[in-house]
Amino acid sequence: MSVTLDRMTKGAKGKVVSIAGGRGATLKLAAQGIAPGMLIEKVGHLRGGPILVKVGRSQVAIGKGLASKVVVRVIPE
Questions:
Q1: Domain count, the chain
Q2: What does the pLDDT look like over 25-68, one tens digit per residue?
Q3: Which residue in 4, 19, 23, 55 is a FRET match for 41, CA 20 to 30 A apart?
């Protein structure tokens, strides 16, 4: 099942399938370690604010708008 990062549930893990955005969004996400093929875990989100994700050993915060452009295939547990 594929969903956007902002719609993933807390604690869900998945593989980034694609970035549904332009060059700027793709480069900004890549600078934070998020690119197609990467495994990520949604740690949580702040009310009305950024989405917290774990990528490798790092945790990053991504704005809700940018997170809505990241398509993730959720890995069932």
A1: 1
A2: 999 999 999 999 999 999 998 887 899 999 999 999 999 999 99
A3: 23
Q: Name residue 59's amino acid.
A: Q
- Alpha-carbon gap, residue 59 to 23, rounded angstroms: 23
| Dihedral class, residue 67 (left if φ above 0, else alpha if ψ from -120 to 50, else beta) | alpha
Average pLDDT over residues 69-73: 96
The two three-digit tokens of residue 72, written as one number: 């993730």
CATH code of the domain containing 67: 2.30.30.90
Contacts of 57 (CB under 8 A, 6+ apart): none
Domain limits at 62?
Answer: 2-74
